[in-house]
């Protein structure tokens, strides 16, 4: 049996060269396919992110125009009970406001949108810093999104950014034109003293406060004096 002659080094290179070239071409083609796939996936992710941001912006715009949001709605017989309701809107000057409460109830067949609130709160520039979004304004309230009014009843406590504080049994916030009115007896305090009256109105974005019906004021003449106050009746 004849021995097969050994291949020279040059012949070995010639035999291996085409195989290596083919494998290298295949590897390069696979790498290009992976690069194209990664680039396409990156573009898809960027497009999805852009859609999410656009959707969030649209929702903020819709909410800013007065659309209400109720995290949970629990039907109870003929009425609709809403847990932690949230109503947003803007006044005539474009100032935003947010009405919240512990719960709300809507009566079927009543005025559209009219909602009874439990422990209502209001985040609005007309009110002072003490009456922020977490401050309860009254035990109950009625919010009318059509008229943009918030009627407060029982244990009403209000403060304005002009440093007035009021306690009364009922009051109405006219959110459309930034006013507060009350036709029940009221007790108020201000930096200059205290006042009692049969009614009141806060107007001109809180810059003017008008008291009516049997006004009695107590003026602070000198805060350093022990009882430096003077009482006046109108």
From TrEMBL:
InterPro entries: LipoPS_assembly_LptC-rel (IPR010664)
One Pfam family, short name: LptC
Transmembrane segments: 43-62
Protein name per its UniProtKB record: LPS export ABC transporter periplasmic protein LptC
Domain of life: Bacteria
Keywords on record: Membrane, Transmembrane, Transmembrane helix
């Amino acid at each position: 049996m004849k021995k097969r002659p050994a291949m020279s080094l040059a012949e070995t290179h010639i035999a291996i060269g085409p195989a290596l070239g083919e494998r290298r071409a295949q590897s390069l083609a696979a790498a290009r396919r992976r690069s194209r796939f990664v680039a396409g996936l990156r573009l898809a992710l960027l497009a999805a992110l852009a859609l999410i941001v656009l959707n969030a912006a649209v929702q903020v715009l819709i909410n800013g125009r007065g659309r209400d949001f109720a995290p949970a709605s629990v039907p109870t017989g003929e009425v609709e009970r809403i847990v932690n309701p949230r109503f947003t809107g803007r006044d005539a000057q474009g100032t935003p406001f947010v009405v919240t409460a512990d719960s709300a109830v809507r009566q079927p067949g009543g005025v559209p949108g009219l909602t009874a609130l439990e422990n209502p709160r209001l985040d609005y520039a007309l009110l002072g810093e003490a009456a922020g979004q977490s401050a309860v304004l009254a035990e109950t309230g009625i919010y009318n999104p059509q008229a943009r009014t918030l009627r407060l009843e029982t244990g009403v406590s209000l403060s304005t950014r002009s440093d007035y504080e009021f306690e009364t049994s009922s009051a109405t916030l006219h959110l459309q034109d930034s006013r507060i009115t009350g036709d029940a007896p009221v007790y108020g305090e201000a930096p200059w003293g205290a006042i009692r009256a049969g009614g009141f109105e806060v107007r001109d974005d809180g810059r003017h406060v008008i008291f009516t019906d049997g006004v009695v004021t107590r003026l602070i003449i000198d805060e350093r004096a022990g009882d430096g106050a003077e009482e006046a009746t109108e």
